[in-house]
Design a protein that fits this description.
Layout: H1 3-88
Length: 89
């Protein structure tokens, strides 16, 4: 082999190494993008789940407040009824 053929071989190896490097970088970057999008989607689902949980807790709190109010009203009526019954005796 003369110097010209060695230069061609070295050039071919260099181009092959360059193309391999570019392809590897592209694959790594695409993988990172896919992982980032998946993480973002997962975080969005967690956010929606958390918002749904807060909404459910607020709804339960309203229901408990209403039940407490009704229970207090029933207790007042029962106390009034007891007073009436004691007065009648």
């Amino acid at each position: 082999m003369d110097g010209h053929e060695l230069a061609e071989v070295a050039g071919a190896i260099g181009i092959f190494a360059f193309i391999t490097t570019v392809i590897t970088v592209i694959i790594v970057q695409v993988g990172a993008t896919v992982r980032a999008r998946a993480a973002l989607a997962r975080e969005g689902e967690y956010r929606r789940l958390a918002e749904s949980g807060v909404e459910a807790q607020q709804n339960i709190e309203r229901q408990l407040t209403e039940a407490g109010r009704r229970l207090a009203a029933m207790e007042e009526r029962m106390n009034a009824l007891e007073k009436i019954l004691q007065t009648v005796e």
